[in-house]
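Run folding on both entries below.
>entry_1
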Amino acid sequence: MNRATRGSQAAPEHMDGPIEVERPWPVIPPIVALAVLIVLAALASVADVYERVAVWTRAHEHWELDELVITLALWLPAFLAYTYLHMRRRRYLRAYNSLLEQRVESRTADLSHANAMLSQARGERSQLLQQILAAQEMERARLSRELHDQLGQVLSYMLVGLRLTKDEDISAKAAEHISKLSDLTREALEDVRSLAVDLHPASLEHLGLVEAIEQEVRRIAADLPLDIEVCVGEPRDFPVGPAVQITLYRVTLAAFANIVRHADAHNVRISIQHEDDRIRLDIEDDGVGFDVESTMRGAVEDRFGLLAMEERMEAVGGTIAVHSRPGHGATVSLETPAGTVDSADEHAT
């Protein structure tokens, strides 16, 4: 352990280390010794002084001047010593406070710099995530077009060819095989078209955000015991940039997929509001619900979907909030400032 020097006092450690200033305590022994010597000298000379002033003091005995002289001789050194120590202590405290203020100012500047660096890092991370998502959407769109225009066309031609072959004069067994092949080809074509839509929903471009979401959730829930309600505030049509549009679409469908897989719900309500340059979208269900806090503290694989939705919303300057408790359903609230639509799209491109 480091020791303070003889002429200094180590103050409590703050941040980088102890603050060392000159301390008044080393001057106490010589001052006390000086005071004692003064008192002894005063006492030694009292007798001589007393004899010389005795005659003069007899005329003023009622003033008790002899006691006054002794009292002053005893208290004056102590008073001077106390005054000196008090002044030294005040200087010490001023020096200590000055050094402490300098340390606080330095730490405050360091903290401000760290916060600025953190804010810059978050901004760069957000821009990078926007670029990644934009590149991902571009690749999804390319794959969707290839599936639809190439593989989809090939499967369509196969269906036509199988249908024409079946109409020809062939054996019953061959006709049966052709019928099975036609069914398989038709299923493959439907899967390809569904995959193409999942990769890049063309309905967003043709129908807009609200209609595209409603169309897709009703398609998914067509064979499920789910009552779907979509509520849209006025104005029903509002401007949304491509980046925000695809983000709200995908996060909404991800939340709806979680309801289908885990909630055991009977009713789902999706509400969309555009007000004060902000877009708010809520997905509510009456399912089994869950403990949000324990889920967020759990394993990553148990909350990966929520984390992915959160990252997507952050990439366009939005937020996501999940409210739920066991037995009382769940609500996923999405909100994004409409004013960031343009900037988000610029970063994304």
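>entry_2
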Amino acid sequence: MVGLSTTEADEIGYTQDGPTLIYMDNQSAIQVVKNPEHHGRMKHLDLRLFWLRDEIQKGVISVKYIPTDFMAADILTKPLSKVKVVEAYKQLGLQS
């Protein structure tokens, strides 16, 4: 395999002891990616869902529920109140 960039080459050379853990705050989405029985009702979703489901079944990725209040990544994806921003800073180990 040939990396097309330094970053990609570094990623190709990286070995991992366990699955990549993805934290999600949407329990319905977790059920969809973990349960193949939802396929008939989810035909409108694209192939990325099926790739993710395959990776979970192979043990490459693991999905875990985390309540919204503990989702520190929200500061990177949506506008938050000042209180939530301060809490996210604490969760990320940053100073406000």
